[in-house]
Amino acid sequence: MYRILHCMSRSTFRCITGCLGEYPLDEIIYKCPKCGDLLEVVHDMEALKSRSAAAWIKLFDERYLRTTWPYGSGVWGKKEWVQPHVRDENVVSMLEGGTNLLWAERYGRELGISDLWVKQCGVSHTGSFKDLGMTVLVSTVKQMIADGKPIRAVACASTGDTSAALAAYAAAAGIRAMVILPRGKVSTAQLVQPLANGAVVLAVDGDFDNCMAMVTRLAQEEGVYLANSMNSLRIEGQKTVAIEMVQQFDWDVPDWVVIPGGNLGNVSALGAGFLMMKELGLIQKLPRICVAQAAAANPLYLAYKAGWDKFQPVAAKPTLASAIQIGNPVSVRKAIRTLQKFDGVVEQASEAELADAAARADLTGLFNCPHTGVALAALEKLIARGEVRPSDRAVVISTANGLKFTEFKVQYHEGKLPEVPHPRYGNTPVYLPNDYTAVRDEVRRRLE
Q1: pTM of the full structure
Q2: Is 440 part of a structural domain of the chain?
């Protein structure tokens, strides 16, 4: 029932600009050797079409969240579409994917939309959607090492979540991990994850873009393999969030998907998943996509407003949404290409807007990270101006677990965030003496 169709599909790297040439997925290569642009994984779609859409749906549904290795994973249950050449014994999986698609009924009702959902990608092994891509990358590296490739370590630049995912999966595989972080710009919970999993953590006085430049140079050294989303293997795992979302809707497609955007690999991954389903006949339409950026780090938003051919990197300013504090996104060309195919839009959120949006949704039972707050703020703007209609089905991609950002939460409710001096939804404890009457009177006052 869970057989994998090794003979059906062959996947390779190709240049996103169309330069001639194909490169094996186990080759240590990140950019096109002809033009220097990014690569992408290309699958043998004609071979995959030899299986009908109905048969793919049946196979994926049979595997979903089951225990037969490795197909119970939300990623590896779609192995033929992701990384068919990786042998099962080299798959490094922690049951990533399979995350809750939550009907945010009360929150949506408050915004004026009845069919609002939040894809809880932070309910994952390391607490973020980065697990989806890292399982693919580390599994491929494990196989490359088994096949004799001279890889001694995997390395990444990170604002927190990428480093946590890399460290966990590398530890499970027995591969050394090197992490370069911007010093003082990562939450304590995010910092402790790679430390606990044994990664070498280098905290650099600089921002993410500085760290990315360093790790890119480091990956040119023999024996160090790049684990950032410049490496297209990551995109292959992350695209399964689109497939899984549609699967959870019984293979129906939402009208809108709103996703936070920093380095922008997640945007192109989301599009890749939808496009693959459409080409193979599993779906008949595409959703519209909104990329949400923090106003403090908004190069894609500025390009969208000025015309796509006007993209310019910016110097990213500090933002509460630290994981998307990126002024020179690596995957910008992929993201623009995706948005053009999906009638996409880009919206931004100020610091107060993202913090208040996260807190407002929290009051309906969620517990949002600041990056999800950016997406929620963008959605609120889309609804307010009528782009997202009351009858639309909209999905917000929640990228990380709010428990990674407790300092942000506490400081918001205490009114101690300099960026948000007047939190609209602040909620602080009421301190009372050890006296029943005082407690009773406060409860009665609150119930009036």
Answers
A1: 0.93
A2: no
